[in-house]
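Ticket 4471: requesting a sanity check on a complex prediction with zinc ion. Repro inputs:
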Amino acid sequence: MDFYVSWSHSDALYSDYFESCPLLISAISRNTYALKRFKKVPLKLIIDSGAVFYAKKNLKYKVKDIFEEQLKLATPLLNKCPITLVHVDEPLLNKKTVSEKFDAVQKTIVNAQEYMNLSKRNSIVQENKLSIMGVIQGYDLPSLRFSIFELQKLGYVKFGIGSLLGKSVDVQIELIKFASELVGAENLHVFGVTGIPQIKEMKNMKIASFDSSRPTKAAIYHQVFYSDPFQTFVIDQSKIDKRQGQRLDAPLACDCPICKINQNDIFNISHRKYTLLRSIHNYYHFSKTINRIIHEEVTSDVISNVLRS
Ligand SMILES: [Zn+2]
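Returned structure tokens:
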């Protein structure tokens, strides 16, 4: 299972610090040239459509324009790492009535048709290093099933499922499981995951990949992560709401690339440059925790294979 860190132009340059660091980036104009800043090529790249950004800002878009923006963004890394372009969905954000929600599901399918045609015209559909992903959009099990079948009819073989934020852990897991049984867990990416319980469940389901912006967001809110066991603390000097969690007044021992040089940097809340350093520290512990979870899966598989033989 791959963990993609969702990334934008103003975030820390994660892949310069960590060897295997898949990235998810949105095709919005301020990100267009951002990938040129990396010294090291990310291990893998997902370029999403930025649909959530457009929906939040209530901006109109054309599928063709976004597709071209995605290609422009991908250009410097073509054939250097595997790149997946995400089709332009119509997010359920701000859609309140069932009728509005179903319109969004249908619009997502209409867009998927146009997106598939654009991909075929650019001969990228079946290439290994450049592929496309259809976004499954739905608000209940029947609408999810409808969305999946329509995408499959159009020829999509890789899928992403979003719109999970704001739902309870149990509901998120139920929807992910439902989708994975229909498309195959090995073909499914889960957008915007934050919780360790969901990550553990996704590991058990053998989900292909997921993305999270949690290391960056936590750093912005003056939170520091530690692993073994995974813990989140709020920096004690911060004026952030005391209800946000357990507080810590000094850094703990840490082997991350930042703390190895000066561990007080991650506790510095005076300047944005320290927020970036704190993001790197947080990424180190978050990805270490995920790797542990993935490794546990490998171990248990090995044991069960031994028992079977
Ligand atoms: Zn550290």
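Notes from triage: Residues 217-289 form one domain. Leaving this open until the requester confirms.
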